[in-house]
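Hey,

Quick one before I head out. I ran the complex with nicotinamide-adenine-dinucleotide overnight. Inputs first:
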Amino acid sequence: MEFKQSRILVTGGTRGIGRAIVEAFAHRGAQVAFTYRSSVEVADGLKGEIGGLAFQCDAADFQAADQVVAGVVKAWGGVDILVNNAGITRDNLMMRMSEADWDQVIDANLKSVFNYSKAVCRTMIRQRYGRIINISSVIGRTGNAGQANYAASKAGIVGFSKSLAKELAVRGVTVNVVAPGFVETDMTDAINPKVKEKLLSTIPVRRTAVPEEIAAPVLFLASRDASYITGQILGVDGGLSM
Ligand code: NAD
């Protein structure tokens, strides 16, 4: 897959799945912009590596999303592909889940998807071309004890994406969801080894994914080959959601 003339924006691009997506597009010739929250040094390194654009901001900030998209449009004249990847967990059983745990997860995981989709949609409609790919999770389908906030945010992404797909289909813009299973990143590093082992036994392929295995289907959905696919949820979970 070639992305030579493509202008890409990825939220949360400095590590894990987001970084794998940024690098995969860049290695295929795309112009890639990414957002990040805190790690200036890492972001500078990645920006140098890919020769793209980096924006430090909180993905939950509505106005910042508009400024980021305006910056990309100013530099490159448009945005062809948006990948909403930024996300966090604040796990706790309901009895112990605070209002802040709830708000932070909904804001970082779901409001961010609204912020960036809204910010790019005018440009994409004008171009009569665009691809929006939102990163949900297998947990959005199945739920998980201790992750009511996270599951709600990830299920919310599904309803949001299907609605937006229906609004934008006639304008040449597709909207799809990738729902990863268990991927080796900083996010899953924190999981207790015993819980991990138990989790592994429930995955039909009996292993976790590496971030590049999530980037590959994202690239497919972002490609011109996926022109007739919209409003879909692609599970990339080693069979976990079967
Ligand atoms: P990660 O913690 O390694 O990386 C998340 C990235 O998002 C980081 O770069 C972080 O700085 C950024 N980010 C978080 N909140 C942000 C905010 N408010 N503003 C800007 N940037 C922000 O996690 P990951 O595993 O690479 O996760 C990437 C996405 O994939 C997330 O949406 C996550 O929910 C989803 N996901 C991950 C797994 C997994 O097993 N790792 C499974 C399913 C879905």
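The CA atoms of residues 27 and 50 lie 8 Å apart.

Talk tomorrow,
K.
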